[in-house]
Amino acid sequence: MTGADELVVCRGLSKRFCRRLKRSLWYGVRDIGAEAVGRRSAPGRLRRDEFWALDDVSFTVHRGEMLGLIGVNGSGKSTLLKMLNGLMKPDAGALTLRGEVQALIELGAGFNPILSGRENVRINAAVLGLSKAQTDRVMPDIVEFAGLEGFIDTPVQNYSSGMKARLGFAVVSQLDPDVLLIDEVLSVGDMAFQEKCMRRMDALRKSDKAIVFVTHSLFQVEALCDSALWLEHGRVREHGPAAEVVRSYLDAQEMQAMRDSEEEGVAYEGRGTVATRAFFDARDAAGHETASAQRTGQAMVIESVELLAANGEPCEELPFLSECTIRIRYHCPHRIYQPLFNLRFHQGETGIFETSMLIDGPGPAEAEGSGVVECHIPLLPLTPRVYEVKLFVRSGEGIADLIDRRTVARFRVTDDGIDAIPLRGPMALTHLRRGSPVYVPRTWRFYKEGELTHTVESGYL
Fold first, then answer.
1. For 181-195, 334-348, 401-415, which range has the lowest pLDDT when averaged over its residues?
2. d(Cα 135, Cα 122) in Å, to the nearest integer?
3. What's the CA gap between 116 and 361, in Å, rounded?
4. What's the half-sphere exposure (Cβ side, CA atoms, 13 Å) at 312?
5. pTM of the entire structure?
6. In whole angstroms, what is the distance from residue 268 CA to residue 265 CA?
């Protein structure tokens, strides 16, 4: 692409804030005085109680591209967007914006509650730079897009918050800027309207706009954006193709959530699940459970359970689509007839799948004393996230439950090995990570007039 196609260019962009209000006001006065005499105040360094809200951020957005800004709250996303929108000046670095710039922020925030939706559209459109003739021309499209045909002449004070946001988005989506700045506005309304918003944003991107999109919705980043910029404490943690940055961000967030859960003493049960159950560490509890079982005369004592990787070494993490083995060491104080082992894989409270000798049939005719049983899974069909393994052991008749212990292992399936399958569809990565926890081989076939015309393979190993 040529330089003319570079509509947004940031080079070494930095912004500092002060933690104390009085000192911040004093620094502001000094900075204004320094600018008045043609110099910058304390360029490139921090003064007392200051910190970098943005530190040396560089990126370029070309015409027809969409950049997603991601990161936790306080990472600098909104600060960067305000600088792009001209609401804030950088303390260091250079910022170049070519063409008309428009921002989609706080939809419907300026609506007058006592005026109708139609009247608010005219006022809002005028503020955004549309003439009366232009507003009259696009009014039917705005009303239709918002889905408010029956309420457009109703006072806005009678609208729900979702209706206001829908009307606000319908107005700004009619604009035709060269650079569009979007801040968390694609989560308005119901699911159907959100899909409509995403289609409109995709159409704007394909019409040679440069779009910068701030959001916490990783589905939308992967579905809409060409590239992504991950900010962490004001600095660029990663910048590149959207799917790759989202993958790294998801992995980092999961690891942080696991560390937080461990510090709080609760079990981590996966993204979006509140860890409400008490933390249970199977390895630390094994010795206590063994002694307790011996005192109560339990039929079988589970001495240890290990998860083994492909190389036979104990582990707590497994690559995606890898083989694994569950090794169970047990002790039977008395003879047991045909013990049947059953392993159930859970994500949180939800059972995902089982490996069960109730289906596969019994092993030895009897068990007495100490022994080891291993369950080998050639290809674990679980997608990247955290799982627990629960163990059940029954007698040969399949009725009596021989053990008290339940949760015996916790492990994490990582992104390693994810390149073994093609991720060609929209939202492929986030759907794999947040959709069904089970990945199975499949083939899609298309027919026309009885003839096979197209085949899509899942790419399973």
1. 181-195
2. 7
3. 71
4. 0
5. 0.71
6. 9
pLDDT band at 322 (very low <50, low <70, confident <90, very high): very high
Instruction: Supply φ then ψ for residue 350, to 5 degrees.
Output: -95, 125
Distance in angstroms (rounded) separating the CA atoms of residues 65 and 411: 39
Torsion of CA 149, 155, 158, 164, to 10 degrees: 60
Mean pLDDT in residue range 55-67: 93
Altogether, the residues listed in the chain come to a count of 461
Close Cβ partners of 268 (under 8 Å, ≥ 6 residues apart):
257, 258, 261, 262, 275, 386
Give me 401's structure tokens.
């439950």
Q: Quick: pLDDT tens for 88-133.
A: 888 888 999 998 888 776 665 568 889 999 998 888 888 777 788 8
Return the pLDDT at 41.
62
3-state secondary structure the chain: CCHHHEEEEEEEEEEEEECCHHHHHHHHHHHHHHHHCCCCCCCCCCCCCEEEEEEEEEEEEECCCEEEEECCCCCCHHHHHHHHCCCCCCCEEEEEECCCEEEECCCCCCCCCCCEHHHHHHHHHHHCCCCHHHHHHHHHHHHHHHCCCCCCCCEHHHCCHHHHHHHHHHHHCCCCCCEEEEECCCCCCCHHHHHHHHHHHHHHHHCCCEEEEECCCHHHHHHHCCEEEEEECCEEEEEEEHHHHHHHHHHHHHHHHHHHHHHHCECCCCCCCCCCCECCCHHHHHHHHHHHHHHHCCCCEEEEEEEECCCCCECCEECCCCCEEEEEEEEEEEEEECCEEEEEEEECCEEEEEEEHHHHCCCCCEEEEEEEEEEEECCCCECCEEEEEEEEEECCCCCCECCCCCEEEEEEECCCCHHHCCCCCCCHHHHHHHCCCECCCCEEEEEECCEEEEEEECCCC
Sign of CA dihedral 15, 21, 23, 24: positive
